[in-house]
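Hi team, as promised in this morning's meeting, here are the two structures we talked about. I've kept the exact order from the run log so nobody has to guess. The first one is mostly here for context; it's the second one we should focus on when we meet again. Sequence first, then the predicted structure tokens.
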Amino acid sequence: MDWGRAKNVLIYAFLLLNLVLGYQLWNGVREQRDSNLDITSLENNTQRMMDEKQIRVLAKIPTETPELAKIAYRFVDGDQRGKTVDLPAPVDSKLIFSPRELASALKNTLPDIDQYRYDEVASSADVFVLHPLVDGKWPLFKIEMKLLGSNQKIISYQRQAIEISYPEEEKPQRVLSASKALGNLIENFLPEGSVVTEIELGYYGEVFDSDAHLPAAPAWRFMLESGKEYYVQGISGDVISPNTEKTKE
């Protein structure tokens, strides 16, 4: 055996392996940097206002700005918010964190539950809040299905069954970036000492007792540590604070 040649082959193999591992590490860091936009993406005056008002942002600032259209929805069986329906058999509440297993456990009672997403920040120990999904991805905020629990079991639910439609006149538009929406909030709306804990893109739908089709627009939801929430309309940039039920421009 030519040990010199074998040695050279091993050296080249290790060099190639190091190059591959180095590229994977660099690519992973780049993807993480691109997907986790930090507060340096905010404009300088916004960052100064953060310091002056002692506002902290603990949530990741999303970078996505998809093209989304306004939708319409209507309640299928009227407004059923106060009606509680018992499950045929209790379900382990731990399944709420495993969407596939939860859907399997409740498919006979709620066959479309896989079209809902769990909202951890809106939930409590025994009330699990889920929102219907638009296009299977974007949560329709303010429209809720509540799974009610007791002794670590889900025993009943409350549901607002809806039907979503897509008006032909509504064309997809590029949504406002999360950083711009957050900048507007910081400079004009958030009180001193606010802590932003969650930022998510979805749709904002008002709840009215009506059989008519109701409009819903793309919106960024900003949750504060205090429990207060703000929505920034993704097309117009209007700011909505459901706590006061006022729309601000």
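And here is the second protein, the one for discussion:
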Amino acid sequence: MPESVPVRCPACRRAHRYTAPSYPCACGAPVTPPLDPDAVPVPVGHRAWREEWVTVRCGRCGCDGEWPRPELGCPCGTVLRIPVTGPRTSAPAAPAAPPGRPAFRSVPIRTVRDAVTAAVLYLRRLGHEDIHRADRHPPAGIGLAGRGVLAQVDPSARPATLRDVECLWLTAMTESARCLYFSLAGYAEDARARADALGVPLFLLDLAGVPQPVNGPADALDALGPDGGA
């Protein structure tokens, strides 16, 4: 059962009850960040990518995963970072699911951070466990990288452009990696045509946080896993 702790906002003194979210491990088991009931929540000021994640060990397969650090938004406008204990094993889950990739478990998209989390979850479902912020900044959105893969998450309200797709492909070529593009607003027609020609999988992130394939390379990758887009 997910952990729950009382939280009091230090800005307005309003009392809350926070329940830790569960995330799907690559094996399909739910993992939950370990909350520290004795620590005091801290308002979020300056954000740093490395501080946005917490390590949790899966109780079923024993793998360590990086998941979003728990946060609570108070109605007064203060965002509180909920303290967690050190990395530990998540509660054991039910027996293993049938063979094959686990079903994708989405997170509703309300913020840019949610969009990035949805992309990370999808990449992990494809077998990329070491996803982190890319060293190179893309011309639009947020870059993610892992061993042999680059991804771009575009949370803007404009469709991704031809230049966006080509820049991602060129960067992936220089690093000998495959690439994927995730967009909230879709793609311009010429961007989709160019992605088809280059073999770049394009995904549309709906507000439920489920990446929807919108071209042939994305359909192949979604259906067959990492080897399907080769």
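Starting points for discussion:
The longest strand covers residues 149-154.
The chain is about 20% helix and 25% strand.
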